[in-house]
Design goal:
Rossmann fold, three-stranded mixed beta sheet
Length: 337
């Protein structure tokens, strides 16, 4: 099977490319390099020992998508391309709806024209918003995202459900995943180290590497064990193995399908800091600040449905997530992105 990976040079997409290549799939990567680096392509080749095809471009470029589908015998798409910062989404909601929603509509139009109907969509647990009961399962109420990023993901999900209802040829998997962290065990690829990260672990990395004086922790008055927010963290390799399982499931199952990808375990911000300190040997100084707009207090997954239907289960614990992350951030590779 030949798979197109949109956003395939990003954090999750690059790991997915390696997993698919290792599993014997043919891979074409489409990426506009707005939040990634072309150097990642050479690293994928070094790890997988296979060169995927690469197309530089945007999912909103319909003509480019048409020519890509005409050139390569693609039969399925893993769709990672999109903007993902909660904080940024409040500042630039127009960009988020344009990239995430309009981009997906354009992609599906081109797929439909080319007769390609298998799609795995990178959704998010943010579609659930702030839930009263935990863990969150796939039947939990959506329509309550607390930020424009989450609402853009919810809108895409609604569109894809309508698409499946209108045309029975489609087989679509909505993967609502929680908080991907870690890196490939080789230390050759991982999450880009930004100078102004929006997520917890990249922010901790910057403190450990001396790029920031302290970690900003938003809110210590949540109804949790230590007052800080609780999240479900899943190793990025476990996550992409879930995408492979979903891709295989869709070959025999039409219609819309939805799965949570998470460990089912919630860790507070301070618990993550402690684990990081133990693995790295670094002291992480932090500063407590008021709650941040758009954040939820507690979020962790009920992954029963994915375990049962996809025959998938996360294998890597928090310690391994931290070790692989630390191996990446202290490698020479991470300093070049």
């Amino acid at each position: 099977m030949h798979v197109l990976i949109t956003g395939g040079l990003g954090f999750i997409g690059s790991h997915a490319a390696i997993i698919l290549l290792d599993a014997g799939y043919k891979v074409t990567i489409l990426d506009n390099l707005s939040n990634s680096n072309i150097e990642t392509l050479s690293r994928i080749i070094k790890i997988a020992h296979i060169k995927p095809d690469f197309v530089k471009g945007d999912i909103r470029d319909y003509d480019l998508l048409q020519s890509t589908f005409a050139k390569y015998e693609i039969s399925a798409v893993l769709h990672f391309a999109g903007l993902k910062s909660v904080k940024e989404s409040f500042l630039n909601p127009m960009d988020y709806y344009d990239n995430n929603f309009n981009g997906t509509v354009c992609l599906c139009k081109a797929m439909n024209s080319a007769g390609i109907f298998n799609l795995v969509f990178s959704s998010s647990a943010t579609v659930y918003g702030d839930q009263d009961s935990m863990p969150i399962n796939e039947s939990s109420l959506t329509m309550l995202p607390t930020n424009p990023y989450g609402r853009s993901k919810y809108m895409v999900e609604a569109f894809l459900k309508d698409l499946c209802s209108s045309n029975k040829d489609w087989a679509i998997g909505l993967l609502r995943y929680f908080n991907p962290i870690g890196a490939h065990k080789s230390g050759k690829i991982g999450e880009v180290i930004s100078t102004t990260p929006d997520n917890l672990l990249p922010s901790i990395n910057n403190v450990a590497l001396g790029r920031a004086r302290f970690l900003q922790i938003y809110g210590n008055d949540y109804d949790t064990s230590d007052g800080t927010g609780v999240r479900d963290y899943v190793h990025v390799v476990d996550l992409v193995e879930g995408h492979l399982a979903a891709l295989e499931y869709l070959t025999n199952n039409k219609g819309i399908n939805c799965w949570n990808l998470g460990t089912g375990i919630g860790y507070s911000v301070l618990e993550i800091v402690k684990s990081y300190e133990e693995v790295s040997g670094k002291q992480i100084k932090f500063k407590l600040l008021p709650r941040r707009k758009g954040d939820v207090s507690i979020s962790f997954a009920d992954n029963t449905k994915a375990i049962k239907e996809l025959i998938w289960k996360p294998k890597r614990d928090l310690n391994e997530m931290m070790l692989d992350n630390w191996r990446w951030v202290t490698s020479s590779n991470s300093q070049k992105v």
